Amino acid sequence: MDYFSKSDPMCVLFVKEFGRDRWSEFGRTETIWNNLNPEWVKKFQMNYYFEERQYLKFEIYDIDSKSTDLSSHDFLGKFECTLGEIVSQGRIEKPLLDGPAQNSGKIIVIGSEEVSSCKEELILKLSGKKLDKKDWFGKSDPFLTFYRQNADGSMSVVHRTPPIKNTLNPDWPEFRIEARKLCQGDYNKLFLVKCFDWNKNGDEDLIGEFRTNVNEMLKVNQSGQAATFEIHNSEKRKSCGQIILHSISVQQILTFLDFVQKG
């Protein structure tokens, strides 16, 4: 536990096959530094078998070092369910159990979306212009967070850019994201982009946000000129700055089988 700062949480997923007593580690999320309300970008993809009970266990750890040994980190709590429960309910919100504190917080699990067969990825280049200043003694440290809308209307984080320090006109590096992760391969499906000011203590100040879809981005970018998206904050009536889309392209994701078939 961090006594003089916030925790640095990571979620670890374990699975247990029906009829077996042993848990096996399935995967780990990234670590969210200095945050008591983490939203992990990492998603877990697994097959669902209707006729089987597939047991899942989510364990939360406060990461204290670069060690991959979980015993080197502080255990914050756990939650167990079945994959069938996630599929039937879509969203599960339960308290963490067996943690060091009486109230160790809650975990929210969102799932049960069928994975799209879309094998395309998007390559985007973005920057910001005249963003609102959030720091009293300096400029903002802006970064972007992309959210996909789930079947129940809630939003899930799918990508974060790195923060660009001390600027109101950030220029983020080009990045790639799979279309199925951003919009389930539906280029007309809206997604949400929020611009935050990064802070060392983990408190993220919202600068502004906008909604768009891939087709809109592709359409406005076809002219070869940069596309501009005004961002707004509900606390302000005026524009909070602009996000500039310099380029967007679509690229096929080739698997090993694709290479074999092409010879």
UniProtKB/TrEMBL annotation:
Specify the species.
Romanomermis culicivorax
Q: Output one GO MF annotation.
A: calcium-dependent phospholipid binding
Assembly, in brief, is: Monomer. Interacts with ERBB2 (preferentially with the tyrosine phosphorylated form); this interaction occurs at the cell membrane and is increased in a growth factor heregulin-dependent manner. Interacts with SHC1; this interaction may mediate the binding of CPNE3 with ERBB2. Interacts with RACK1.
Q: Name one GO biological process term.
A: cellular response to calcium ion
Localisation per UniProt entry:
Cell junction, Focal adhesion; Cell membrane; Cytoplasm; Nucleus
PANTHER family recorded: C2 DOMAIN-CONTAINING PROTEIN, COPINE
Residue ranges of every copy of the C2 domain listed in the record: 1-96, 102-229
Q: SMART domains, per this entry?
A: C2
Task performed by this protein: Calcium-dependent phospholipid-binding protein that plays a role in ERBB2-mediated tumor cell migration in response to growth factor heregulin stimulation.
Q: Which UniProt keywords apply?
A: Calcium, Cell junction, Cell membrane, Cytoplasm, Membrane, Metal-binding, Nucleus, Phosphoprotein, Repeat
Q: Provide GO CC annotations from the record.
A: cytoplasm; focal adhesion; nucleus; plasma membrane
Q: What is this protein called?
A: Copine-3
Q: Which InterPro entries match?
A: C2_dom (IPR000008), C2_domain_sf (IPR035892), C2B_Copine (IPR037768), Copine (IPR045052)
The answer on whether this UniProt entry bears the keyword Repressor reads no
Keyword match DNA damage: no
